[in-house]
Specification:
2 domains; 54% helix; Rossmann fold; Histone, subunit A; 10% strand; globular; alpha/beta
Length: 318
């Protein structure tokens, strides 16, 4: 019998409380965290990516953090392969795999068991689109996607050129829009028996206040020095994924003299809010998510009890 591996996933926008919830689940059920964050994979990028602290990593083992350099490319396909290997390892050791992160593409690529080999890359077309963006601007490239696939375009920021290009490449290679391709992937049978939680706040201003506070704490903890060290090391190039990451991109502008520090910090907060909206747009496509709203509960303990009750009802773990 080919029994599916049971897993728990915790998703949600930036600053929603995913990590704390995942830690509590791991401590309750003897789990280990598989990080599903497209930026926490990079070494030397600690503060701006809100990596778990040393104390948190000592409490619960974490996987897929600090696995490549900031100037390396790392695709969802490679991530899925590494994550699936980690899940199997955790499960075979008698532990509970707990996936946690805000990068919906990464988590979906694992849970859906998508075969990325179905679409061959088209380097020439990618180069053509990259040249178009360079000559006409990122927004012009994004407009191409908007005309073909508005739903995908609304979920991808125009400055995330790599993802815009990938979405356009899917249209050209598959004959389907990215939205249609994703729906096909949703129908793909998952190799896992998963219970998926997502956190959000009913009061949007509460989430935004949490985001602003997180950015302020990052600055206090030394994000400026972290970005400077990465720049000095030659890691944050305009072509690299890391160089376009929120928090890093804005402070690069400060170091180049393009923007005052106060304005750069404000830009980080605004960009993070917009990213949170896109994260929620992605998540709301999945009808199998158990939504959790911390502002529905009097305290964190009551929220966690609701999580534990849902896990018990799913009969995955005892």
């Amino acid at each position: 019998m080919n029994k599916k591996i049971p897993v728990i996933a915790v998703q949600g926008p930036t600053a929603s409380g995913k990590s704390a919830t995942a830690l509590a689940i791991c401590e309750k059920y003897g789990g280990e965290i598989i990080s599903c964050d497209s930026m926490q994979i990079y070494r030397k990028m600690d503060i701006g990516t809100a990596k778990p602290t040393k104390e948190e990593m000592a409490r619960v083992p974490h996987h897929l953090i600090d696995i490549c350099e900031p100037d390396e490319d790392f695709s969802a396909a490679v991530f899925a392969e590494r994550a699936q290997s980690a899940i199997k390892d955790v499960f075979l050791r008698g532990k509970v795999p707990v996936l946690c992160g805000g990068t919906g593409l990464y988590l979906d690529s694992v849970l859906r068991g998508v075969d990325f080999g179905e679409l061959e890359p088209d380097p020439a077309y990618r180069a053509e689109l990259a040249k178009f963006a360079e000559e006409n601007g990122n927004e012009a490239l994004h407009a191409k996607l908007m005309s073909l696939d508005p739903e995908a375009a609304n979920a991808i920021h125009f400055n995330n050129v790599k993802r815009v290009i990938r979405a356009l490449e899917i249209c050209k290679t598959s004959g389907m829009t990215k939205t249609e391709w994703d729906k096909k992937a949703i129908e793909h049978e998952s190799p896992y028996e998963a219970i998926i939680f997502a956190l959000d706040y009913r009061d949007r201003e509460t989430l935004y206040a949490r985001i602003d506070k997180r950015v302020d704490i990052m600055m206090e903890e030394g994000l400026l020095d972290e970005v400077k060290a990465l720049l000095d090391g030659g890691y944050l190039t305009p072509e690299s994924t890391a160089g376009g990451a929120i928090g890093y991109k804005e402070l690069i502008g400060y170091f180049k003299g393009d923007i005052p520090l106060e304005d750069a910090v404000s830009a980080i907060k605004i960009a993070t809010r917009h990213y949170a909206k896109r994260q929620l747009t992605w998540l709301r496509r999945n009808k199998n998510i158990h939504w959790l709203y911390p502002d529905d509960y009097e305290n964190k303990e009551m929220l966690l009890n609701a999580v534990f009750d849902a896990i018990q009802r799913a009969y995955l773990f005892s």
